[in-house]
From TrEMBL:
Pathway: Cell wall biogenesis; peptidoglycan biosynthesis
GO biological process: cell wall organization; peptidoglycan-protein cross-linking; regulation of cell shape
Transmembrane segments: 82-99
Bias kind Polar residues: ranges: 603-613, 683-692
Protein name according to UniProt: L,D-TPase catalytic domain-containing protein
Species: Johnsonella ignava ATCC 51276
Region (Disordered): 1-23, 543-692
An example Gene Ontology CC term for this record: extracellular region
Claim: Transcription regulation is one of the keywords in the record: no
């Protein structure tokens, strides 16, 4: 420091200056240059000792003030010029902005749209003219469901310009000084009052359009399950979007479009004009319902005799309740089962019977045959339908028969001709037993009912008890309530006309041996066919035999007369004697014949004792027995001609041991049948033995 020039040192100590930054960049640059030059002047300082301490010198860069001022003077002059220029520019801009803003006192801002018309930089009158021009050529294209687009002109719609102050009022609301901002932002306005409508003309035109015609409206429909189609089941019909619309809402939508001068309007896009379907084809509940219904209608139940239940019928039973659940109509199922019973039931229906006499007759089946248990079968059907099963089965029966079909009595049955008083028992189609019988007493009103029945059970050693009688029987086989087959040991004869005046209380009386054989060969449930058949009565057979005998006698008398006449021609006297003898013989024969017929009728009408077996035996005359034998012979000849069963000789009857006990028979010697009164069959009771 001591080596420095004294003047320099003095200046440094007295004029120490720290250069501070100026806000002006140019000024700072000049200051930096001065500072750098001053610093360079002390680069050659020589220290007088080696162990000097720089910290003892408080030296800042020295800058000559005069030099500093001279060098900064041009900088300040340039800065003033710049600021002056900027001020001038800004002033011009403000003046131009304000002048431009005055334009928007009468014109709309840029990017301004009124009812879809570009109103930028336009006066209200210019906008009105544009609207007026647009109205003149304006057309609206309206789209609706299931119709082609309809184009209507503004003139047809009664469109007219509204010359009110709406646009001017809109212009007054503008702030002219903000006009520059509208180059960035756009403004859109809908002014309904700019376009006006002739209400009557507009309404008439719109309501006259085809899509507004209520006669052509089609209501929307939800997706739904189709009708059942045989073989393919159910399917889902997609929803339908109908053409029916709210005319008032459609009118308003069209009015709004016209006032905005829209060129297109799709009514389907306007909310609330159409009522859309609620349930669509992909609705889960709907699809689930269709699945259940298809499962139900896949059910197939094959019944006997070719009767089948399938989806064609089941589909008519299905419905949906208020909770949307698929249900089976029970009444419809019951009706079907009733119809099914009408086809398959045979109880109570006439059955064709080919009699042992060769004649086919119809016999009503009173309590015998097939009968469906309708409530049980209806329940079973519903269960099978719910499972959707394919099955072959027979109905639930409350009554069964031997076989299916009209002849449901099969080929094992008892045939009782109540007119002929004769019984045939067929087993597996073969005649194994036949016998005369005595049925219910016609004179006392105990007529044995005709019909087809079945053996209810069979029992040994029963007592038949009724008013005034109690008769023990060894073989009891009831088939119609208290009416049944049994032995009648108190009778000495069977068949003929006995039943008319001396018959039973309705039961079928059989010889003891026949009853035993029947008991040993018949089973519970075996059909019993009882019938009356014209032409097979015993009286008819007897009359036919007598007529034949009469014809033979007449033929013999004729031959005698012819012989007598020839003899008279040869010997008149002898001929006269012979003629008288022939006449006497003829008179005698006629008298004998008449007496025989009269006697036969008298015997047939006589009443045999009803209470005593011994009286019944003595009451029959020799002539009645002979007549009975002759009737049997005639009937057997008739059977041989009309029907040829297996061997009908004595060997055709089964000779079973009298001591043989049939398996499953009941032993109850105290059991009896008791009749409640006249005309009723005997019923089971207990009591002592007595006469029938």
């Amino acid at each position: 420091m001591s080596d420095l020039d004294p003047d320099l040192k003095s200046n440094i100590e007295s004029d120490k200056h720290v250069v501070e930054a100026d806000e002006d960049n140019t000024y700072n640059d000049v200051e930096n240059d001065i500072y750098n030059d001053a610093t360079n002047n002390i680069d050659n300082i020589v220290y007088d000792d080696e162990n000097h301490d720089d910290s003892q010198y408080d030296i800042d860069v020295y800058i000559n003030p005069e030099e500093r001022r001279s060098r900064l003077r041009p900088v300040f002059k340039n800065k003033k010029r710049v600021m002056t220029a900027l001020g001038i520019i800004l002033g011009v801009f403000l003046i131009a902005y304000i002048v431009r803003a005055q334009t928007f006192n009468t014109r709309f801002f840029p990017n301004t749209y009124i009812n879809g018309i570009n109103a930028s930089f336009k006066t209200p009158d210019e906008v009105k003219e544009l609207i007026r021009q647009e109205i003149e050529v304006y057309r609206l294209e309206i789209k609706s469901r299931e119709n082609e687009a309809t184009s209507v002109s503004g003139k047809e719609l009664g469109v007219r310009f509204n010359f009110d102050s709406s646009l001017n009022e809109m212009l007054k609301k503008q702030n002219p000084m903000s006009w520059a901002l509208h180059y960035i932002n756009s403004d859109e306005y809908d002014v309904d009052r700019v376009v006006d409508l002739d209400t009557n003309k507009f309404t008439d035109t719109v309501y006259g359009l085809s899509f507004m015609d209520e006669a052509s409206f089609k209501e929307s429909e939800d997706a739904k399950i189709s009708e059942y189609k045989s073989g393919s089941g159910y399917s889902i019909i997609p929803e339908y979007y109908g053409t029916a619309l709210d005319k008032s809402k459609a009118l308003n939508a069209i009015s709004s479009s016209v006032k905005r001068l829209d060129t297109e309007l799709d009514l389907n896009e306007v909310e609330g004009i159409y009522t859309d379907p609620v349930v669509k084809k992909d609705d889960e509940v709907l699809m689930s319902r269709a699945e259940v219904m298809n499962k139900y209608t896949k059910t197939v139940i094959n019944y006997p005799r070719g009767v089948a239940l399938n989806g064609d019928t089941i589909s008519g039973w299905l419905g949906v309740n208020e909770n949307g659940v698929v249900v089976i109509n029970s009444d419809a199922v019951n009706d079907y089962v009733k119809q099914l019973a009408g086809e398959l039931d045979t109880v109570g229906k006439p059955k064709k019977v080919i009699t042992s006499y060769g004649k086919t007759i119809n016999v009503n089946s009173k309590g015998y045959g097939w009968k469906i248990n309708q409530p049980a079968e209806a329940q079973a059907i519903k269960e099978y339908v719910i499972r959707g099963q394919d099955i072959s089965r027979e109905p639930v029966y409350s009554s069964r028969a031997a076989s299916l079909g009209e002849t449901d009595y099969g080929n094992t049955y008892v045939e009782i001709n109540l007119s002929a008083q004769h019984l045939h028992y067929y087993k597996d189609g073969q005649l194994i037993l036949e016998s005369d019988l005595v049925s219910g007493n016609l004179a006392k009103g105990h007529r044995t009912p005709p019909g087809i029945f079945s053996i209810s059970y069979k029992q040994r050693n029963a007592i038949l008890r009724g008013p005034g009688y109690a008769a023990p029987v060894s073989y009891w086989m009831p088939f119609n309530g208290g009416i049944g087959l049994h032995d009648a040991k108190w009778r000495g004869s069977f068949g003929g006309n006995i039943y008319k005046t001396s018959g039973s209380h309705g039961c079928i009386n059989l010889p003891a041996g026949i009853a035993k054989q029947m008991f040993e060969n018949i089973d519970k449930g075996c059909p019993v066919i009882c019938y009356y058949m014209d032409g097979s009565e015993v009286d008819t057979v007897t009359a036919q035999a007598q007529e034949e005998k009469k014809n033979e006698n007449n033929e013999a008398l004729k031959k005698n007369e012819e012989a007598a006449k020839a003899s008279q021609e040869e010997n008149p006297k002898q001929t006269e004697k012979d003629s008288q003898a022939a006449k006497a013989e003829k008179a005698k024969q006629n008298t004998t014949q008449k007496e025989s017929q009269k006697k036969g009728k008298t015997k047939a009408s006589q009443t045999a004792p009803a209470q005593s077996g011994s009286d019944e035996k003595t009451g029959e005359s020799t002539q009645e027995k002979a007549s009975s034998k002759e009737q049997k012979s005639n009937l057997k000849e008739s059977k041989k001609e009309s029907k040829q069963p297996a061997e009908k000789s004595g060997s055709s009857q089964t000779k079973a041991s009298e001591n043989k006990e049939t398996k499953g028979t009941k032993e109850n010697p105290k059991a009896v049948l008791e009749s409640p009164g006249k005309g009723s069959a005997p019923t089971l009771a207990t009591g002592q033995s007595g006469n029938p």
